Amino acid sequence: MADVLLTHSNHLYSDRKQVRKMQPYPPLQTLMAAARLRECGYSVALCDVTLAASPDEEFHAALETHRPRMVAVVEDNFNFLTKMCLTRNRELAFRMSSPVPAVVNGSDASDRPAAYLDAGFKMVLVGEVETTLEEVARQVVGGEDLRLCGRVGPRPPIAELDSLPDAAWDLVDMDAYRSAWMQAHGYFSLNLNSSRGCPFQCNWCAKPVFGSGYRFRSPERVAREMLRLKREFGAGHVWLTDDIFALSPQWTRAFADAVECLDAVIPFKMQSRCDLMTRDTVSALRRAGCEEVWMGAESGSQKILDAMDKGTRTAQIYEARENLRRHDIRACFFLQLGYPGETRQDIESTIRMVRETRPDDIGVSVSYPLPGTKFHDRVRAELGEKENWSDSDDLSMMFHGTYSTDFYRNVAGALHEEVRGGDPRWELLWTSC
Q: What is the pTM of this model?
């Protein structure tokens, strides 16, 4: 028997785009929650449905095998797919509200606690999970009266992230992940996190779990875990999952020093902002092994960046691209279409920016109103029955944009053609809109 069975709802084969990409990562937050429970003396088991042929069968088999006293659906809050609050993930999570007391934590549950309680969950743990989950386990597993029920939390953020144990990597079927990566890409990648929260105020960005406060682990601690992924598990690549990596130039230099000192250098990709990719920071990232940076460029129109409260200038996109090129680091842009007020001229500014900067890769989305944001408040009255995407390739316009969903999907495809060097036939696209 296990005191707590942990699971999550990110099933790769339910998402057509993620199947095409085939870049599966273990549920890092779930594993960190498991490690914290172990540290507190609880026995834990994991039902990892990421690569399961049938997630429902996998979960029910885990219930039979481990006979837990409590089920905790702890989503990987470091994974952008979790933050997208996809309905297919929600539906799977609902089916995990088991006969034994079940609790849930994640962005979607934090946004819609009533729906999860109606689905059968005893508690929705709002915000950062480790402290609240420990409290709940003490009551459920310890046999105390269930004073906590319904929506629980959030508790104060964990100030010292170094106080948390490393993820419970031993619970993961590393061979399954390694096989998927090697077959698709010829190398094996694992995930790692160094910070929580984002202090920037982009008005479309939802932060229901970690909020706007920024906390970070020590550079040495992160470097040691990178070394472990490299030596113990044979990772040839790492995804640093931070919303904003390299926020502090001083921290980044110390991280590069620690990585070099420990011989922990390993190729990694990361997410950050264009205005943070200065020459000194990029140089330190290169020393640490960085080979790919994804930045929220969003738009080539300064008008749209200002409307988003992005806090960046279009010139900084160009500067960041050149700084990364100079150090042979791939520069990749997140682009966002359909923000309210965007016109053909604004979209053409984005096209021009892509042509002139020639990013190594792009990810294209349309503006997606999520609860808790100023953007959502602005368009709430326009939302219909569909308030979330079904999967990460959905790209539906759910408010009254300038153009239709099909048009924006076609623009996204044409922008990808631009990056690949194809012929996107823009005039034909504009004629058809």
A: 0.96
Count of CB atoms situated within 10 Å of the CB of 191: 21
Q: Distance (Å, rounded) from C-alpha 328 to C-alpha 318? A: 15
Using 70 as the pLDDT threshold, list the residues of the chain that sit under it: 144-148
- The residue ranges of DSSP E strands in 127-262, in sequence order, are 150-152, 189-192, 195-196, 215-216, 237-240
Q: How far is CA 205 from the centre of its chain?
A: 12
158 in Cβ contact with 185 (< 8 Å): no
DSSP, res 46: E
Contact 9, 92 (CB under 8 A): yes
- Beta partners for residue 123, in sequence order: 103, 150
Which of 24, 178, 15 lies closest to 88, judged by CA?
15
What is the rounded CA–CA span in Å between residue 404 and residue 391? 19
Q: List pLDDT tens digits, range 74-93.
A: 999 999 999 999 999 999 99
Question: Do strands 150-152 and 361-366 pair parallel, antiparallel, or not at all (unpaired)?
Answer: unpaired
Prior bond to 101 cis, omega within 30?
A: no
Selection from 346, 344, 345, 390 nearest residue 368 by Cα: 390
Q: Where are the alpha helices (DSSP H) in 335-373?
A: 344-357
Kindly state the tokens that stand for 143: 């046999």
The pLDDT score that the predictor gives to residue 332 is 98
Contacts of 317 (CB under 8 A, 6+ apart): 274, 295, 297, 300, 333, 353, 357
